[in-house]
Amino acid sequence: MTREKNLPTVDEEQSSTESNSSILVVDDNDMGRMTMPRVLSMSPWHNSNIEVCASVRSAIQTITAGFTPDFILSEMVMPGESGFDLYSWIEENKPELLDTLGFTACGDGEGRQMIDFMSRMRTKKRLIEKPFLPEEIISMMQEISADKMII
């Protein structure tokens, strides 16, 4: 098995819990939807149940249809409904999922909008700027796990 440089190793004790996790990826960009599962395949979450959605509307439908993610990794700014809208919907309808959220965003042109939104969040602020390194996503998921005591 080949590993990318600096990626955490799969700890046998943790991998059974993590591999049983459910992950929801929300990104309007084709590359983002392909990249995230690839990153997760090299992580302790390599055997997780991953649902990938191209829109917030699709993510909400997936959740309301009964998919309960342990992690939600969402692009912040998308056409139409955005990560901001997803956060608001979860806050109102599924507050137990708030601590599962992690966001990605492009650094250009989104700054003020993100700062305003992040200041209103009542949960821990988790945001990774694109382009990201795989270990940044894995680190964010480890932080979510630790906060939720999934590990």
Q: Can you tell me about this structure?
A:
With 151 residues, the protein is of the alpha/beta class. It has one domain (18-148): Response regulator (Rossmann fold, 3-Layer(aba) Sandwich), CATH 3.40.50.2300. It has six helices and five strands. The protein has helices at residues 12-19, 30-41, 56-64, 83-93, 111-120, 134-148, and strands at residues 22-26, 49-53, 71-75, 101-106, 127-130. It has a five-stranded parallel sheet with strand order 2-1-3-4-5, with helices on both faces. β3, α4 (83-93) and β4 form a beta-alpha-beta unit. α3 (56-64) runs parallel beside α4 (83-93). The protein starts with 11 loop residues before the first helix and ends with a helix. The relative contact order is 0.17. The model is unreliable at 1-16 (pLDDT under 50).
Fourth CATH level, the homologous superfamily: Response regulator
Strand order of the largest sheet: 2-1-3-4-5
Q: Which word captures the global form? A: globular
Could you say which structural class the secondary elements and strand pairing correspond to? alpha/beta
Q: What attributes characterize this protein structure?
A:
43% helix, 151 residues, five-stranded parallel sheet, Rossmann fold, 17% strand, alpha/beta
